[in-house]
Amino acid sequence: MANRLSEDTHLSVLIIERGGSVLQNPLVYNTSAYGVAFGSAIDYAYQSAPQRYMGNKVETLRAGKALGGTTTINGMSYTRAEDIQIDAWQWIGNQGWTWESLVPYYKKGEGFQVPTPAQYSAGANYNALYHGKSGPLHVGWTWDMQNSTMHTELKRTYKHLGIPYLPDVNGGKMHGYSIFARTVNRAEKVREDAARAYYYPFASRPNLSVMLNTTVNRILWANQTGTFGPAVASGVEVTLSDGTVEAITANKEVILSAGSLISPAILERSGVGNPEVLAQHSIPLVINLTTVGENLQDQINTEFIYSSNVSYTGQGTYLGHPTASDIFGSNTTNVANDVKNNLANYAAKVSAASNGTMSAANLLSLFKIQYDIIFENPTPIAEVLVTPKGTNFYTEYWGLLPFARGNVHIASTDPLQQPTINPNYMMLGWDMQQQIGSGKFIRKLFNTAPMSEHTTGESTPGYTTLPSDATNAQWASWINSAFRANFHLVGTAAMMLRDMGGVVDTNLMVYGNANVRAVDASALPFQVCGHLMSTLYAVAERAADIIKAENYGGLSVQDGQGYV
């Protein structure tokens, strides 16, 4: 977004980043090094609170500490949302936020790389209508794709399970089997993180600056909400790497893009949030906004490992998106009725967990929308990611649309102390139900020809740990012990109507103030089926146009297609 705003030479844009530059760091640019940076100096490695519904397990939540954020350490997966999930943003009061209105912004940032003949023969495929060609973000397939053998066998196996082949997952309909694209620069053979795409090629702009190794302490206010109208930010207070504290003036706006865990923490340290939370830390109240930090949503990830009679080299991104009917089959109606009958109980339980800051009535309205997305539309409820490596098939899967909601709140006024993070993993029946059902689907996948012909055994969890006739209780016990967080955290400064529990409005402006916005995953009101990155790029692209249109005489939001 800083890139887009600095296109206006009359503006001065400053990026404040707690981490450093990782442009030359092989843990970042090496596309086959996913996971190697975890636990390193460029991973915040936040720790969750003990998870009550998962045996008090403490989860590590990965997040990138670098210019470029988590795009420097993530899996580079470029998969968009299901169209109805973006349309749902408008259903909860965000006028103009629809799939159709967001597609131009997905395309605006994208510099799509058409597959080479070798990549195409290995399974890379696309629909040209879905992609942008001139954006700064390189999207495509790695130069070292695996050959077509695995693609062909998985494609046939999914077909035998009644799941179609989907040539391109990025058209708004995600049900099926695909080989998805990633954020890579094929020519340079490197990861394309946000900084490499949007900052470094434009770093010479005189009106675009960056402060590295600098921590934002809090927002500074020129006036607070009251007689003089909405609160107005005058800038931010920061701590430099040497410990010096400075105030930086913002003549126009302050835009938070610190993610679902830290953007709400900055708001709370700045006096914006639940008065009860702020009072615990003697922070003067500037804006009474009780739902700051609430509505936290994440998925849980579990892995199967199968041994193979073939050894695989190269990189493969083999993706399955089954729906509820694919997973539950003839029992889908019973599952749907069970969830529907429990929606009010789910809403009451989440409301109680938030100490009433999220009302049960509002939650029930949101949960009914989520129910319809899951059961009234062919929306995927799980992601199945098969990675052949050596003589193993590493198969991660996660339920995409949990109903659980948690929260994140500051633990002190010290910006270097991580907040208290409680995602409430598996607090509701559906959340475990979709994970168990998805696990059973994995076994069915690998026991269906032709994949079964390439599989010589299941090493994790294995049939000794989890027998073929395991009860749901046994499945739940294994999942509790084996799961990890999926690092897809959203919702803690949700874009919703204020009386529904929203923190930002349709222009991503924090309620009760005139010039502070949150533009990151915290603003997403719901989980989406795709990996968050592509949707966050699109939201940021649209936010830049919103800001230009409001304040600087730039393009109207409807002119987004002019950038494609």
TrEMBL record:
Chain sites annotated for binding FAD: T70, V216
Obligatory cofactor(s): FAD
Keyword Flavoprotein (UniProt): yes
Catalytic activity: beta-D-glucose + O2 = D-glucono-1,5-lactone + H2O2
Catalytic site positions: H488 (proton donor), H531 (proton acceptor)
UniProt-annotated location(s): Secreted, Cell wall; Secreted, Extracellular space, Extracellular matrix
Database matches in InterPro entries: FAD/NAD-bd_sf, Glucose_Oxidase_domain_2, GMC_OxRdtase, GMC_OxRdtase_N, GMC_OxRtase_C
GO molecular function terms attached to this record: beta-D-glucose oxidase activity; flavin adenine dinucleotide binding
Class in the EC hierarchy, top level: oxidoreductase
Enzyme Commission numbers on file: 1.1.3.4
SUPFAM superfamilies: FAD-linked reductases, C-terminal domain, FAD/NAD(P)-binding domain
Ranges where the Glucose-methanol-choline oxidoreductase N-terminal domain occurs: 64-87, 259-273
Keyword terms: Cell wall, Extracellular matrix, FAD, Flavoprotein, Oxidoreductase, Secreted
Entry keyword annotation includes Secreted: yes
Cross-referenced PANTHER family: GLUCOSE-METHANOL-CHOLINE GMC OXIDOREDUCTASE, GLUCOSE-METHANOL-CHOLINE OXIDOREDUCTASE N-TERMINAL DOMAIN-CONTAINING PROTEIN
Quaternary structure and partners: Homodimer.
Protein family according to the UniProt entry: Belongs to the GMC oxidoreductase family.
Protein known as: glucose oxidase
